[in-house]
Specification:
This protein is an alpha/beta fold. It has six helices and six strands; from the N terminus they run βαβαβαβαββαα.
Length: 175
């Protein structure tokens, strides 16, 4: 069985440590996992309940469909002003009423050990949405400022193993 994972960076910056971490995860995944890196956060319109109709905005419909087809989700998000970046929170707001995250296994991978507020807030939001936070797959990997891109992340044996272990725990939660 192939486990389909949707990997989301909470940053729109191409060269952010979170985006690099997501790309590294995709490179490190076993053949039993299909990692799809989602790049459409910046395309989602601002959440407005008046627009949350069927079929709704095309970017939202595509995001929801992608999530529906995923067995699990992996999120790596920066922390801005002690909170979750607006673009990621906006994406989650589009999912509150539609239910794609209900009981969906989620791994939260933190790229900066000092970024604890956003991590806690994101976990709370996802729990409220009844997503299944997989504790053994939710790790902090100190890459921010130390490992500049996904190649350096993959080349670091300790970080690479921690990411492989998190992916294995996420896959176990799916089966």
């Amino acid at each position: 069985m192939t486990v389909r994972v949707l990997a989301i960076s909470g940053s729109l910056r191409t060269e952010s440590s979170n985006s690099s971490l997501i790309r590294a995860v995709a490179s490190l995944a076993s053949e039993a996992m299909d990692i799809h890196v989602y790049g459409g956060l910046g395309e989602l319109p601002f959440f407005n309940p008046d627009l949350d109709v069927n079929p709704g905005p095309p970017a939202v419909a595509q995001f929801r469909e992608t999530l529906k087809n995923a067995d699990a989700v992996l999120i790596s998000s920066p922390e801005y002003a002690d909170g979750v970046p607006g673009v990621l929170k906006n994406a989650l707001d589009w999912l509150v009423g539609s239910g794609e995250l209900i009981d969906k296994p989620i791994a939260l991978v933190n790229a900066a050990p000092r970024a604890t507020h956003a991590y806690a807030s994101l976990a709370e939001t996802l729990s409220t949405m009844t997503a299944q936070i997989v504790r053994d797959a939710s790790i902090t990997v100190p890459v921010s400022g130390r490992l500049r891109d996904e190649h350096e992340i993959c080349a670091d044996p300790l970080v690479a193993q921690a990411l492989r272990d998190a992916l294995a725990a996420l896959a176990l939660a799916v089966t």
